[in-house]
């Protein structure tokens, strides 16, 4: 199927679309076949909150697009439909087509992991299938991004105008996304199930009487004998704190396995997620993920909209060099300002991802 790269913004106006367009330009310059889709809605020309102009998604001839049918006439690109994968959205059925004449596109797609999986599977079967699929995402809908081979995280002053605070928050996100993969795949856990499973010292496996989340009432009575807990769905940071408390701050010998690192970010509070992870580690426990997430790079945007007296918004910018320096101080992953520095280095990272996926 080729490489699947998610581009996720931590908030509106953090530069996600500019990053996405830059990656497409770099990939096309390297003769890569591209498919672009979304797990939400993107492509409008005016921000519906601030009233300020927004960057638009531009696709050249030959790029494949997966979007909702009602979005086809909202852009200037002419798209020939090739596949209808049978996925419904609020804006009509999903279609997959190829751009016949370049122009602007509006993307809308599924926000469920299962639907995105179906879409990617259908896209892999079209003629001249893409060797790079770009998934436009958002921090508030991170769970489906677990299907991506790697992520680019777009953040900026629209999330927080304090460069230091933004950098520290991003470091927390990177920590969560760096949760290692679990090597005991298949051992005692339900494969493909959505139940929380507890594993005990005697090898016994028990489905906990709960859904995909873990609450105080679900902590097993013999918590001291726990050696593992599998939480496949969204993970509340509070659930990790509960496990630490239930063992009186001693989780030595206990592994917590989650579906994917992005599941721990589903709460939308990265600081809380990072602190919960640190609490588990400090207690001697370990957190692993069934599906690892590779953070390819972080992009930063110094722009933010400032609300004026009367309700109108104006463009404002923090110091871009300070923002970049603070982010590089706090985050070990590659960090780029794609407007100030260009996209060549980011393009090289993406191209290496494509090459790796083809080996």
Features:
10-stranded mixed beta sheet; single chain; 359 residues; 2 domains; Rossmann fold; globular
The assigned CATH architecture of the largest domain is 3-Layer(aba) Sandwich
Distance between the termini: 12 Å
Rg over alpha carbons: 21 Å
The H-level CATH homologous superfamily of the largest domain, spelled out, is P-loop containing nucleotide triphosphate hydrolases
Pick out the low-confidence regions: none
Order of helices and strands: EHEEEEEEEEEHEEHEEEHEHHEEEEHEH
Query: How many structural domains?
Result: 2
Morphology: globular
The number of distinct helices, counting runs of at least 4 residues, comes to: 8
* CATH fold annotation of the largest domain: Rossmann fold
Number of β-strand runs? 21
Percentage of helical residues? 25-40%
**Residue share in β-strands:** 25-35%
| Oligomeric state | single chain
Instruction: Quickly name the level 1 CATH class of the largest domain.
Output: Alpha Beta
